[in-house]
Write a structure and sequence with these properties.
The complex is a heterodimer of chains A (100) and B (654). By secondary structure, chain A is mainly α. Chain A contains 3 helices and no strands. The chains are: A mainly alpha (100), B mainly alpha (654).
């Protein structure tokens, strides 16, 4: 049986990669993918802890996260398509009209 | 009935509401005018009937019970200040009620004819009814604050009605002048009210019971401040003197006495019935009423000043009245002068005589003003007496009634003005030994009454005798809706002297529960002398302008007497330059202070504070808004750093 700490390490490195992706990449789709990466890192941690504790709660929560993430992606991609139609680009820095 | 006296002010108020809210919306001008007139006359007529019934019932009570108070509700109750909204009816308020509603009713009827064809007539009648309401509050208020409400209310109505024809610059200017000058007096009344509350703890005139609790009245407890002084060591004043002096300042404003009389002649810019009602018969007499009402707190020092103010006003205004060409300005200065007689009478402590003269003057001066309105109406808005002349033949009813009013004002036996004025002059003569100033006051008042006869003789001659000097109009008699009030008032002028004839002195007995005065002594010598003087100077005035100089009076020409008097005549025509004095001293100072506030203090001080606060937040938010640069990734970084900080804190803290 693999130690829980390995799972946590993997989860943490995935989460860090996700944050880096959100912060440094300008393409909106890549930013999305990075967000998904962070979500799945969290899912991994949930599942790992659930197995260690012998408890099903963490597993249940993962299903919720997956469902919400699916909805979020649907909305996000719809926004993205609209932005692309208006701006001819998916660069997140190009969408800055609302600055003060 | 006595418990229903609240109907008396309520009825005109309902008339005001109907005319103000409903009548103005009637589309048809003809129907609108008729409705406005009928509603206003009906409201005042109903109030008059209620007043008469209440008056009769009051007379049936035993003498010491003739003080009826009706507390409608508690008006103001904060801390120790408890002001009921209460009305009172006592003999003094009773006679004032009858004057206000009775003469008011006649003037309302007259207004239907005089204001015929005016385009804002609903507004006119609404103001007139509001005025009657406020005047009734003034007379019937059972505390000083309610009296003050009426006092301010009549001032407001006076302002609105002087400026009724506001398209005329002179009318709106006169309205503002009247309002501002009155404000000076009103400020003094406010101070007097505060002082009275400070020393008596109450503003009620008489003991009032509200919800079973008895509140004292300051009129009855006036001896509580006898001998009480205030001031710095070495220079103290009697509290009673200070309070009564403040009241006197208020009186000089409202009753057009020295030094604040300047607004009344200008107030003639309003419609003539308004001049008759507000600026002759009722509102301007409020000051005399106030003195009579609060006479218990007047000290000898103040009374001497009151007497002098009245006497000097009487003589100054009488001289000014001689040199006027405008038919209404003669009457305006005459009113100021007669108010001076009343105030002087009040100062001499003969309040009955003051009220007697107030009542008779209210009747015959209303008659004179309405008569002059009839002349103005019949000569197509001519007010300059040089353009009149010979109107006796064209306007017989107006002439005869005007003659009766003028003779009464001049003090000819047996008309009302003779009896009331004689009581004042005779008192000054009979009691000259009591205080030193009564003898000069006697001569001043005697001279003023001789001048009164002179200018009335002059006015009669200029308006009704001689030949018509200006033929731009065709003079005609006024309709009967205007002449019938004149005839009624003329009848009252003949009879009103009977109120207080030397033998019966009904008014003295009637007012005894309030004023506690003995009947005035009649002096046959003074009466004969004063009458001869009045007849002589009145005839002189008539003879000079109707016979001697009849041909020398020309349109826009100078007065024939100008040849002998010169500069003095100019001074009299300008009322001894009081207006010019104020325009050179107080008005510019006031304007420069007001200008400073308007152009410097307000834009830079008040606006500066407000705008400064706004600008401060503007600057601060300008700095803050650069944080929001629109780059999503920056926000995400901020979130991330925030999360790191929070988690870091949780880790270290736990």
């Amino acid at each position: 049986m693999v130690e829980t700490s390995y799972y946590i390490l993997l989860s943490a490195s995935l989460f860090t990669l996700g944050i880096l992706g959100v912060l440094v990449r300008r393409n909106a789709i890549v930013v999305f993918m990075s967000v998904e990466l962070m979500l799945n890192a969290a899912n991994l941690a949930f599942v790992a802890f659930a197995r260690q504790q012998g408890n099903i709660d963490g597993q249940v929560l993962v299903f919720f996260v997956i469902t919400v993430a699916a909805a979020e992606v649907a909305v996000g991609l719809a926004l993205l398509v609209t932005i692309f139609r208006n701006k001819q680009t998916a660069d997140v820095d190009a969408i800055s009209q609302l600055h003060g | 009935m006595l418990d229903l006296i609240w109907l008396i002010p309520l009825l005109p108020f309902i008339g005001f509401l109907i005319n103000a809210l409903y009548t103005g919306r009637i589309a048809d001008a003809h129907a609108r005018e008729r409705t406005a007139g009928y509603v206003a006359v009906g409201a005042v007529g109903a109030a008059f009937i209620v007043a008469v019934l209440a008056f009769v019932q009051l007379g049936q009570l035993p003498e010491e019970a003739r003080l009826h108070q009706v507390v409608l509700w508690t008006w103001i109750a904060t801390g120790s200040l408890n002001v009921p909204f209460g009305l009172l009816l006592d003999p003094l308020a009773g006679v004032m009620l009858l004057l206000v509603t009775g003469v008011g009713l006649l003037i309302h009827i007259y207004s239907i004819g005089y204001m015929h064809g005016d385009k804002r007539v609903a507004r006119y009648f609404a103001y007139l009814n509001l005025f009657i309401t406020m005047m009734l509050f003034l007379v019937m208020g059972n505390n000083l604050l309610l009296l003050f409400l009426g006092w301010e209310g009549v001032g407001l109505c006076s302002f609105l009605l002087i400026g009724y024809w506001y398209e005329k610059r002179s009318a709106s200017g006169a309205a503002v002048k009247a309002f501002v000058v009155n404000r000076i007096g009103d400020a003094a009344i406010l101070l007097a009210m505060m002082a009275i509350f400070f020393y008596f703890g109450t503003l009620n005139f008489f003991t009032t019971t509200v919800n079973g609790i008895e509140y004292p009245g300051f009129i009855e407890e006036a001896n509580r401040i006898v001998g009480v002084t205030v001031g710095i060591p070495g220079q103290t004043f009697l509290v009673g003197t200070l309070i009564s002096l403040l009241l006197l300042i208020g009186v000089t404003g409202k009753s057009a006495q020295l030094p604040l009389f300047v607004w009344l002649p200008d107030a003639m810019a309003g419609p003539t019935p308004v001049s008759a009602l507000i600026h002759a018969a009722t509102m301007v007499t409020a000051g005399v009423y106030l003195i009579a009402r609060t006479h218990t707190i007047f000290t000898p020092t103040t009374l001497a000043i009151v007497t002098w103010v009245g006497a000097l006003t009487a003589i100054i205004a009488a001289t000014a009245a001689i040199a006027q060409w405008d038919i209404k300005r003669v009457l305006a200065y005459s009113t100021v002068s007669q108010l001076g007689f009343m105030v002087a009478a009040a100062g001499m402590g003969i309040y009955v005589a003051a009220i007697f003269h107030l009542l008779t003057h209210g009747v015959f001066k209303a008659l004179l003003f309405l008569g002059s309105g009839s002349v103005i109406h019949g000569t197509h808005e001519t007010q300059d007496m040089r353009r009149m002349g010979g109107l006796r033949e064209h306007m017989p009813t107006t002439f005869w009634t005007y003659l009766i009013g003028a003779l009464s004002l001049a003090g000819i036996v047996p008309l009302a003005g003779f009896w009331s004025k004689d009581e004042i002059i005779a008192h000054a003569w009979k009691h000259q030994g009591d205080v030193g100033y009564l003898l000069p006051v006697f001569f001043i008042l005697l001279f003023a009454s001789a001048l009164t006869a002179f200018y009335m003789g002059r006015q009669l001659a200029l308006v009704f005798w001689g030949k018509q000097r200006d033929h731009h109009y065709h003079a005609h008699e006024s309709p009967s809706v205007m002449t019938i009030p004149l005839i009624i008032l003329a009848g009252l002028t003949v009879l009103a002297g009977g109120l207080n004839l030397p033998g019966s002195h009904w008014l003295t007995d009637w007012l005894h529960p309030v004023l506690h005065e003995e009947a005035a002594q009649f002096s046959i010598g003074v009466a004969v002398f004063a009458t001869l003087l009045a007849v002589g100077s009145g005839y002189l005035g008539w003879w000079l302008y109707a016979v001697k100089f009849a041909n020398k009076i020309t349109v826009d020409g100078k007065d024939p007497l100008y040849h002998w008097t010169g500069d003095i005549w100019d001074s009299m025509a300008a009322a001894w330059y009081f207006d010019a004095l104020y325009n050179r001293t107080i008005v510019p100072a006031y304007r420069s202070v007001a200008g400073f506030f308007a152009t410097v203090f307000d834009p830079q001080g008040i606006d500066g504070i407000v705008n400064g606060v706004g600008r401060l937040f503007g600057r601060a938010s300008n700095g803050a808004r650069t944080l929001q640069n629109g780059f999503v990734r920056t926000y995400a970084l901020a979130f991330f750093l925030g999360v790191v900080v929070i988690i870091g804190y949780l880790i270290t803290a736990l």
